[in-house]
Design brief:
Strand 5, helix 5 and strand 6 form a beta-alpha-beta unit. This protein is globular. Helices cover 37% and strands 22% of the residues. By secondary structure, it is an alpha/beta fold. Strands 1, 2, 3, 4, 5, 6, 7, 8, 9 and 10 form a 10-stranded mixed beta sheet that branches. It folds into 2 domains: 164 residues, D-Maltodextrin-Binding Protein, domain 2 (3-Layer(aba) Sandwich), CATH 3.40.190; 133 residues, Periplasmic binding protein-like II (D-Maltodextrin-Binding Protein, domain 2, 3-Layer(aba) Sandwich). This is C4-dicarboxylate ABC transporter substrate-binding protein. It comes from Desulfosalsimonas propionicica.
């Protein structure tokens, strides 16, 4: 009986090891990755990467770090507070040019690794409200995301461009807090820039019938696409409860980033395991937006040069790297 039990225990251990064993040796390191505010998709991705990569790479430990989101991650990856970060392509590009809002500092040490997903702007109002356009929200209380986040920055760009920001009452609340404030009637609308379906929008819809404003219509009318590198997109009908028609909006591209001086081997190995077949499957289970991660989408819409380790991986996969994205020191 004792021998049989030991054999069963050994078999169970062997099975567990085979499921989670590392697929290769890696340089030992403890690295951090900047995620985003509570309830945001950035957190799901940062957590997923931090869980999966260390299981595949001996000696690598990763810590997901909460942050204000895209813009804060650009700053903190550049400064060395984070080794990796999740940010929007527009913020990465403007940061490198010293053109972030109220911030002329140049953040040019950020390097791109790969494309994660498209992040559509979603402007949520009550279904029975009279708001038909973003321009109808003049003077209203609108949650736009945490201060310093990609959501808040994109909201300011958009509402300034259409002439509303100066007659506006922005509330700098994270997604989950905004959903609660919306349910309690403390705000008239809230804005998220994130993959869909978003947990906080779903949360708001559990107690309040919601509607999405077609911000893409306002963007088109005012030449927003000529001013910024956002792209038109559509959120399909049925994405959220009571959403009876498609929502026309715009999106940014979400990218995994690192810093120019992070060890090339570490960057290469993390890129390799996350964009492996097993890694992509894990990320898709972590969040539905990861369905856009693929070898085909590789580093789509990258707005800064690739990290050397990432470029090595994409070269191995036969991906052509355009001159402007080739690694630089």
């Amino acid at each position: 009986m004792r021998k049989s039990s030991l054999l069963l225990l050994f078999a169970a251990f062997t099975l567990c090891f085979s499921l989670f064993a590392a697929d290769g040796q890696a340089k030992s390191a403890f690295v951090s990755i900047g995620g985003g505010p509570t309830g945001g998709t950035f957190n799901y991705f940062a957590n997923g990467i931090s869980i999966f990569a260390p299981k595949q790479l001996d000696g690598i430990r990763m810590s997901p770090e909460g942050s204000g989101g895209s813009v804060e991650n650009v700053r903190r990856v550049h400064s060395g507070d984070f080794d990796f970060g999740i940010s929007y392509a527009v913020d990465i590009g403007l940061g490198a040019e010293g053109k972030l809002p109220q911030d002329e500092k140049v953040y040019d040490k950020v390097r791109c690794i790969g494309y994660l997903y498209g992040a559509p702007a979603q402007l949520v109002v009550r279904a029975d409200s009279d708001y038909k356009s973003a321009m109808d929200l003049k003077g209203k209380r609108v949650a736009v995301g945490n201060a310093g986040s990609g959501a808040a920055t994109s909201a300011e760009r958009f509402f300034r461009h259409i002439g509303v920001w100066e007659n506006f009452n922005p509330q700098f609340l994270g997604y989950s807090t905004a959903a609660s404030a919306f349910q309690d009637g403390k705000i008239e609308a809230f804005w998220v820039l994130v993959g869909y379906p978003n947990a906080s929008v779903i949360e708001a819809a559990t107690q309040t019938r919601i509607r999405l404003i077609d911000v893409g219509v306002d963007a088109e009318k005012t030449g927003f696409y000529d001013a910024y590198a956002y792209a038109p997109t559509t959120i399909p009908a049925g994405t959220y409860p009571d959403q009876e028609k498609d929502c026309h909006t715009f999106q940014d591209s979400t990218l995994l980033t690192t810093r120019a001086d992070v060890d090339d081997e570490i960057v290469y190995n993390i890129t390799r395991v996350i964009w492996s077949e097993k890694g992509l499957e894990f990320m898709r289970q972590a969040h539905g937006a990861a369905k856009e991660m693929s070898l085909e989408n590789n580093f789509k819409n990258a707005s800064r040069p690739l990290a050397k380790g990432a470029a090595k991986f994409w070269n191995e996969k036969g991906r052509q790297i355009p001159p402007e994205l080739k690694p630089v020191d």
